């Protein structure tokens, strides 16, 4: 268990610290974070950093969003961080970590 809005890479007591996952699935958390009235931008950036941290290289991040357009999601998640590999519908986007 972790708080996706805290820097999990620095939480030594966090069991997720040593784990990386092949797939991370978000079915609404990013949308909820985005609607937070108290500093949503900072929370969205921490969310993005934590998703990257939790995924193994080549892992999939599957995001379901009803609040963001495909273009907005690409702009936010694909800034040298993740690469869009498939857009399933207007509200389901699948990402893969880019290996640089």
In angstroms, what separates the terminal alpha carbons?
29 Å
Strand content: 25-35%
Q: What's the arrangement of strands in the largest beta sheet?
A: 1-2-4-3
Q: Whole-number radius of gyration? A: 13 Å
- Largest β-sheet summary: 4 strands, mixed
Task: Identify the overall geometry.
Answer: globular
Query: How many E strands?
Result: 4
Count of alpha and pi helical runs: 3
H and E order: EHHEHEE
Q: Please, what is the average pLDDT?
A: 76
Show unreliable segments. Answer: none
| Integer tally of domains | 1
- What class would the helix/strand composition place it in? alpha+beta
Portion of residues within helices: 25-40%
Overview of the structural elements:
The chain is α+β, with helices and mostly antiparallel strands and 100 residues long. It has one domain (22-97). Helices cover 29% and strands 28% of the residues. It has 3 helices and 4 strands, in the order βααβαββ. The protein has helices at residues 29-34, 40-54, 70-77; strands spanning 21-26, 55-64, 82-87, 92-97. It has a 4-stranded mixed beta sheet with strand order 1-2-4-3. A hairpin with a 4-residue loop joins β3 (82-87) and β4. The radius of gyration is 13 Å and the shape is globular. It starts with 20 loop residues before the first strand and ends with a strand. The relative contact order is 0.19. The model has no long low-confidence stretch (mean pLDDT 76).
